[in-house]
Amino acid sequence: MFTELKYIFDVDGTLTPSRQKVDPDFEQWLWDFMDHNDCYFATGSDYAKTLEQLDYPLCHAVKKSYNCCGNSVWSGGVEIEYNDWHLPSLCEEYLEAQLSKSLFPIRAGGHIEHRTGSCNFSIVGRECNLQQREQYVQWDQQNREREYIAAEFNYLFGEQLDVTAQIGGETGLDIFKTGHDKSQIAKHFDKNTVFFGDKMQPGGNDYPLAQALQQKGATTIEVDSWQDTWRYLKQYAEQHANQNSRMAGNILGI
């Protein structure tokens, strides 16, 4: 018997260009796909930002949107669960010091963003434009600044304050109480799950959920763009249609 799959999607870099709106053609295709499949979002961003990027129809079509790394859960436009954890002041002081001493020259604003049950930190700032974002992406690829900051942050505060920093998106770090990363949503899923994300390597914010799902026998697919995700989804949709056709043929004795 054919088993229905559940699909979990990261947003930035997986369904959209980072911090940008979904492609209109992909949006229409996704809307139809979500109308026939159980789909979920799992993103580090808050729900307001997810609405900006994916618009109301898609956000309403998913069964649940796990925002802020699963610390804020939405269904049908209503927040149904949340975690009220806040970043310790000692950690915020450390981030402010990193912001001051970074050699990257641009400060666009919105560097420490407090979210439900989590925090996002960005040297260039979440208010940066596309050109500034690309400049920082290239800088970070060469200097591995986020990797260094996350490693030092976790060394200093991981055990002492029970917090964890992970690389998220193209320019930021996601910070939360240890264990309250995306992996916390794995308890709601089983082996009949497919997870799409672009940060599944160690240190990335998709990594914990990917590992937790893999332990259950689920499928995890690391992509490098929304176009890559669309290509995989079309393959799954085609396989689904073929399996349903074979099932119908067996039932009818064809």
One letter per element, helices H and strands E, the order comes to: EHEHEEEHEEHHEEEHEH
Q: What is the percent of helical residues? A: 40-55%
The end-to-end distance, rounded to whole angstroms, is 17 Å
Largest sheet: 7 strands, mixed
**What structural category do the secondary elements indicate?**
alpha/beta
Shape: globular
Give the percentage of residues in beta strands.
Answer: 15-25%
**Tally of alpha and pi helices:** 7
| Whole-angstrom Rg | 19 Å
- Total number of beta strands: 11
Query: Could you list the spans in which at least 5 consecutive residues all have pLDDT below 50?
Result: 247-254
Structure write-up:
With 254 residues, this protein is of the alpha/beta class. The protein is 43% helix and 20% strand. Strand 1 (6-9), helix 1 and strand 2 form a beta-alpha-beta unit. It is globular. Mean pLDDT is 92; it is low at 247-254.
Keywords, please?
254 residues, alpha/beta, seven-stranded mixed sheet, 7 helices, globular, disordered C terminus
Please outline what is shown here:
Helices cover 43% and strands 20% of the residues. The chain has helices spanning 24-36, 47-61, 89-101, 130-143, 145-161, 207-215, 226-252; strands spanning 6-9, 38-42, 64-67, 72-75, 78-82, 112-115, 118-122, 163-168, 172-177, 193-197, 219-222.
